[in-house]
Amino acid sequence: MSGVVTRDIHLSFGATPVLRGVDLDVEHGHTACVIGPSGSGKSTFLRTINRLLEPSRGDVLLDGRSVLGEDPDRLRRRIGMVFQQFNLFPHMSILRNLTLPLRRIRGVSADEAEAIARRQLDLVGLAGKADARPGHLSGGQQQRAAIARALAMEPQVMLFDEATSALDPELVKGVLGLMADLAGEGMTMVVVTHEMGFAREAADTVVFLDEGVSVEAGPPSQIFEAPVSPRLKQFLSDVL
Ligand code: ADP
Ligand code: MG
């Protein structure tokens, strides 16, 4: 299958098992949302997809091929990631935050990197902020810059880890809107989120993670309207 598949992912930190069997199926062009309680292993799981962490058991397939034998640097060129805390370089302009990885990792020329970066910033509504430092932008603008930086690499897949959790409430909508646009344009995405409204509307499939196990998965209509497992029912009654 083209897209992202994980099978029976296990991972421990020391003697503590954190992932104990996580399965995910996201078709090319689709969006999966991963939901679950704090500490259930969502961030850890997301990091196994681009090999920031290595599972002790199980497999991650990208377009049908295991990523586990692949060079991690090459893999991260194909899989973009957006973090809760943006991870922009604070001492560089927004433009340079985008051009640096383009030059270093994709190896494009300075002129081309600037053209690509300016185009991406324009697409996320930040054309006027290219020369500003991250600290001079709102959290929402910084997150949109981080998304633009990832998109500039032309990834096959985008991973989002609680991309709106650090934002003031009034800034959340703009970032979720950008993510929904990307999903609508056919980007393949795996989105860890607390935003159940986003999961309901933008996801093709929702995976509920609890204590390191993918307990239940299905289309949003099924997960939110007809949950089966008692743990998912409890989780939804806590958050909705
Ligand atoms: P979530 O993102 O769902 O809140 P995490 O994946 O961050 O959950 O964490 C799952 C569990 O693994 C938690 O108990 C957390 O304390 C533990 N954990 C996460 N990262 C590490 C680490 N680097 N070393 C040890 N334990 C960790
Ligand atoms: Mg997390």
TrEMBL record:
Its subcellular locations are: Cell membrane
- Presence of the UniProt keyword Cell division in the record: no
Q: Which PROSITE patterns match?
A: ABC_TRANSPORTER_1, ABC_TRANSPORTER_2
Domain ABC transporter span(s) in chain numbering: 4-236
Q: Which UniProt keywords apply?
A: Amino-acid transport, ATP-binding, Cell membrane, Membrane, Nucleotide-binding, Transport
GO terms (molecular function) for this protein are: ATP binding
Transmembrane region(s): none
Similarity field: Belongs to the ABC transporter superfamily.
The protein's matches in Pfam families, at most eight in alphabetical order, are given as:
ABC_tran
InterPro entries attached here? AAA+_ATPase, ABC_ATPase_HisP-typ, ABC_transporter-like_ATP-bd, ABC_transporter-like_CS, MetN_ABC_transporter-like, P-loop_NTPase
List the source organism.
Nonomuraea mangrovi
Keyword Transcription regulation annotated: no
Query: Where mainly found?
Result: membrane
Q: What is this protein called?
A: Amino acid ABC transporter ATP-binding protein
How does this protein lie in the membrane?
Answer: Peripheral membrane protein
